[in-house]
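Let us work through a complete example step by step.
Step 1: write down the sequence.
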Amino acid sequence: MSRKVDRWRTRGVRIIRSDELDDATAQTLGMHRRAAVTTEKTGATKLWAGTVTIQANAKTGPHHHGSLESVIYVVRGIARMRWGDHLEFVAEAQPGDFIYVPPFVPHQEINASEDAELHCVLARSGQKGLVVNLDIVPVEVPQLVRWIDDLHK
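Step 2: predict the structure and record it as tokens.
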């Protein structure tokens, strides 16, 4: 076998099976993160990916992800997101929706369902500084933000 073929076989595509997800990743109170794409598992250096579940009628502690950009894809349930210095803004995402969280944005994920688990897939733009948990006193009533772009007013 040629060196190139052998290299592609051993350093090419990686499959991370659902029973191989890693619970030993940075956690935030109220959610359960499981890592799939990490440096240790795949050699990835520029992104991180995994899953998150939040129990019915539960919410996470406020946190941010440092200089990393994050994308959340809602698989099952309704994700209510709060964000801002005092979590003063709120919006909801449903199955099939994507949520983008810019670097250093304080946020909190909330399962808007009283009886169903929220399940999402996460991707971040790097491996380091994945979670910075925050001690924030949130406003009592956040401002609703409708996610409508300039083309769909």
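Step 3: interpret the result. The first strand starts at residue 32 and ends at 37.
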